[in-house]
Automatic annotation (TrEMBL):
The keyword Iron applies. The keyword Metal-binding applies. SUPFAM superfamilies: Metallo-dependent phosphatases, Purple acid phosphatase, N-terminal domain. It comes from Carnegiea gigantea. This is Purple acid phosphatase.
Length: 473
């Protein structure tokens, strides 16, 4: 029997294989949209030490700290002011006045404390100031009678279809050196955001032993430089759950609920985790990935009743915030958003939602307008298809948290994915009028004015053309 003998390949054979290999490797990247080839230094993200200047205490005994504001009603004429005093409760009063006015008004809030394992919080104050005028600068003061501190904010313009308004978009921020870079880039972006749409995962205190809640305090001091001056619209992420029965903590969302308020009752919601607001030309719907959303649950019922209420002649821009993404081509959090997508996606397409912002995956991705609602288990239509009525899905969980970047992507890039890159950053949604908004994403490695991904977004109700897939400006 003849024994096969290995003979070395000829130079020509090697050449053919090399050329074939190059062609195939290119083909892998030609399936979907653009996977950015931006190369960054990949390092672990490290939390800033507690003695960092970004966490410093305000001067004076019992001075109010961790000051933050959010919208306090459905229309944008109320603001919830929140702050913490450490030594004693102090005053619950907020004094506020219009710019250039001597007429000072006062509102009374409430104060509470909570315990979490062996941690006891400071005195947490919340006070809603109401009946504000639109498009007006207000000053406000907290810590009355002790060491008061003064801040200011702008109220939004009256709700209407063609009032321009600019939102910042930040997710999964945490309190690392990268988080600080992200916030600085947002603050110094020449296109000034007027309010932040925050898509969940705030402090990452639960990464510490016993969910060390002093990291909830430090986070609130870190972001105060923005949150005291413009409203952050809060979405809850998995790092807000803080469910830890092993240390006796069996009430989910306990620290978040005490520290951060949302105007959920104004939109007939029964929990602070899902609600809606109008702000200028936008109708913002916030959903909770970590509250029940199956049929017959309160969140399901609320959303079903909520979507038909949106009047696009009043608020043309319909935007949804939800922590766990429904479309995600990174190899992280596989299928975590899938059950909610199955429940709610048909409604979002039916009601022509413009954009869905999510976090959770620590990277950036923007989808084309696609839907995956034709599948009925047996018809085989289980792949997303281009759909003019569908939202753009944007994953922006790239704020800079301690868990680091999600760098591992599925290959090839799926058809629905228009642009993806594993870098930290933030986004700006600059609504111009009822038909157009300029959306841009900004990575931390670039200068403040640089746009790393952008697209002119066309409103689904007033101008439902399919956008060019965008890309780097
Ligand atoms: Fe998350």
């Amino acid at each position: 029997m003849a024994v096969p003998v290995f003979s070395p390949p000829s130079a020509f054979t090697v050449y053919v294989f090399v050329v074939l290999g190059l062609i195939l490797s290119q083909a892998v990247f030609c399936n979907g949209g653009l996977t950015s080839n931006f190369v960054r230094k990949v390092e672990n993200s490290v939390d800033m030490p507690l003695e960092s200047d970004v966490f410093s205490l305000p001067p004076g005994r019992n001075a109010p700290q961790q000051v933050h504001i959010t919208q306090g009603d459905h229309e944008g004429r109320a603001v919830i002011v929140s702050w913490v005093t450490m030594e004693d409760p102090g005053s619950n009063e907020v004094i506020y006045w219009k710019d250039k006015s001597e007429d000072k008004k006062s509102a009374q809030g409430s104060v509470s404390k909570y315990k979490y394992h062996d941690y006891t919080s400071g005195f947490i104050h919340h006070c809603t100031i109401k009946s504000l005028e639109h498009d007006t600068k207000y000053y406000y003061q907290v810590g009355i009678g002790q060491n008061p501190r003064t801040f200011w904010f702008m109220t939004p313009p009256k709700v209407g279809p063609d009032v321009p308004y600019t939102f910042g978009v930040i997710g999964d921020l945490g309190q690392t050196y990268d988080s600080n870079t992200t916030l600085t880039h947002y603050e110094r972006n020449p296109v000034k955001g007027q309010a932040v749409l925050f898509v969940g995962d705030l402090s990452y205190a639960d990464n510490y032993p016993n969910h060390d809640n002093t990291r909830w305090d430090s986070w609130a001091r870190f972001v105060e430089r923005s949150t005291a001056y413009q409203p952050w619209i809060w979405t809850t992420g998995n790092h807000e759950i803080d469910f830890a029965p092993e240390i006796g903590e069996t009430h989910p969302f306990k620290p978040f609920k005490h520290r951060y308020q949302t105007p959920y009752k104004a939109s007939n919601s029964t929990e602070p985790f899902w609600y809606s607001i109008k702000r200028g030309p936008a109708y913002i719907i916030v959903l909770s990935s970590y509250s029940a959303y199956g049929k017959y649950t309160p969140q399901h019922q609320w959303l079903e009743e909520e979507l038909p209420k949106v009047n696009r002649s009043e608020t043309p821009w319909l935007i949804v915030l939800v922590h766990s993404p429904w479309y995600n081509s990174y190899n992280y959090h596989y299928m975590e958003g899938e059950t909610m997508r199955v429940m709610f996606e048909p409604w979002l397409v039916q009601h022509k939602v413009d954009i869905v912002f999510s976090g959770h995956v620590h990277a950036y991705e923007r989808s084309k307008r696609v839907s995956n609602i034709g599948y009925n288990i047996i018809n085989g239509k289980c792949n997303p298809v281009e759909d003019k009525s569908a939202p753009i899905y944007i994953t922006i969980g790239d704020g800079g948290n301690i868990e680091g970047l999600a760098t591992n992507m599925t290959e090839p890039q799926p058809d629905y994915s228009a642009f993806r890159e594993a870098s930290f950053g933030h986004a700006i949604l600059d609504i111009k009028n009822r038909t157009h908004a300029f959306y841009s994403w900004h990575r931390n490695q670039d200068g403040y004015a640089v746009t790393a991904d952008s697209v002119w977004v066309c409103n689904r109700f007033w101008h439902p053309v399919v956008e060019s897939t965008g890309g780097r400006a």
